[in-house]
Amino acid sequence: MTQEQPKANEEARSQQAWTDIGRRIEAQIRHDLATWAGATETDSWEVIGRRIEAKVRAGFATGVGVKPESTWEEVGRAAEARVRADIASGVGAQDGATWDQVGRRVEIQVKTGLGNWAGASPEDDWATIGRKIGDKIEKTVKEAVENLKAERKPSEQEPADKPPEDSAASPGPSV
């Protein structure tokens, strides 16, 4: 027997062992998914997949308040309506408000909030509000810079060339 034959037999056994492991893993996954979805492990993957999809869709359908046998389109519409109603309620829009109506309410709230902060009136348009926001920011920055400059100016009682009192500089040798 050559040295290549035992090596080839060993590789074949190893490959067979890994194939067996893969089959056992697939069988376990098939069993678990089929059991969860209400199928049998002897069903095809296509049947198991359809059962999984139906169970997931029924769960989503129930979660958004439609019948478990509803289509994905019906589930999607119900989910969208629920999200829209929750957002509409949060911004003070009426029940059954459209996305346009919800959007207008959001815009009014944002515009009013920013406008109030910037000193704008409710009748001001976005361009005016934007200018007023810019003016307020510019004024705030200028005031902050002026305050910093005022803090850094030496007082009239201290000479400008005198080092700060907590400085580590020594007065030099005495003569």
Quickly list its features.
175 residues, mainly alpha, single chain, flat, 2 domains
In short:
The chain has helices at residues 4-37, 45-64, 72-90, 99-118, 126-152.
Structure description:
- It is built from 5 helices and no strands.
- It is an all-alpha fold.
- It folds into 2 domains: 12-90; 98-153.
- The radius of gyration is 37 Å and the shape is flat.
- The termini are far apart.
- 6% of the residues are buried.
- Which descriptor suits the 3D outline? flat
Helix % is 55-70%
User: Spans with pLDDT under 50 lasting ≥5 residues?
Assistant: none
Average pLDDT for all residues = 88
Taking Cα atoms only, what radius of gyration do you get, to the nearest Å? 37 Å
Counting helices, strands and paired strands, the structural category is mainly alpha
Strand content: under 5%
The count of strands amounts to 0
Order of helices and strands: HHHHH
End-to-end Cα distance? 105 Å
Largest sheet, in brief, is: none
Protein topology:
Layout: H1 4-37, H2 45-64, H3 72-90, H4 99-118, H5 126-152
